[in-house]
Inverse folding.
C-alpha cells in the first residue's frame, strides 16, 4: 500500500552567527508567513495527516507549530531529524503514520538527499518549501515540489 511522506523545510530564519547557538535561530516574520502558508496550502490540497514530526531546532519547531495550526495535528519533536535525517529515518517516521500521510519539518541538505534517495530526483528545496512523495515499497514518486510563493498562492486561494 502506498504511503505519503510530506517534507516541509523550515521557513526563513535569522542569519547564521546571529545567535549563540544554531539551534536557537528563530524564524523571521517572512519565515512565519511561509510556515503558516505551507499549512494552509496543504490543508487546501486535502492533505490529512496522521502525525507531524519536527526537528527540535527553534526555526523548525516554530515552522511546524504554525503549519500544523491549519492541519489539525500537534507536532512531535524528534532530535534525530535535526542531526541525522536520512532514508532510514524517513521510512521509520513514515511507518509511524500507520498508512496515513506523515509530515516531517526539518532541514537541508538532508531533505534534498532523502528526496533523491526515494525518487531519484534532484531538487532545489527552498526554505519554506514542501515536497510530497508517494512511497510504495522500496521506491518513491515525487508528487509535488512547491516553493514558498506557490504555497502562498494556494493559501490565499483558500482564505
Amino acid at each position: 500500500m502506498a504511503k505519503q511522506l510530506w517534507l516541509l523545510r523550515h521557513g526563513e530564519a535569522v542569519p547564521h552567527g546571529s545567535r549563540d547557538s544554531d539551534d536557537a535561530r528563530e524564524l523571521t516574520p517572512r519565515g512565519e508567513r511561509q510556515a503558516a502558508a505551507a499549512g494552509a496550502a496543504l490543508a487546501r490540497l486535502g492533505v490529512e495527516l496522521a502525525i507531524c514530526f519536527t526537528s527540535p531546532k527553534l526555526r523548525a519547531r516554530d515552522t511546524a507549530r504554525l503549519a500544523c495550526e491549519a492541519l489539525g495535528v500537534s507536532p512531535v519533536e524528534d532530535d534525530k531529524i535535526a542531526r541525522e535525517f536520512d532514508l532510514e529515518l524517513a521510512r521509520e517516521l513514515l511507518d509511524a503514520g500507520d498508512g496515513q500521510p506523515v509530515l516531517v519539518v526539518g532541514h537541508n541538505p538532508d531533505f534534498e538527499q532523502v528526496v533523491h534517495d526515494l525518487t531519484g530526483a534532484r531538487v532545489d528545496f527552498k526554505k519554506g518549501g514542501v515536497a510530497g512523495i508517494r512511497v510504495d515499497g522500496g521506491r518513491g514518486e515525487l508528487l509535488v515540489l512547491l516553493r514558498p510563493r506557490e504555497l502562498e498562492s494556494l493559501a490565499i486561494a483558500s482564505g
Q: What stands out?
A: The mean pLDDT is 94. The chain is about 40% helix and 20% strand. Residues 29-44 form the longest helix (16 residues).
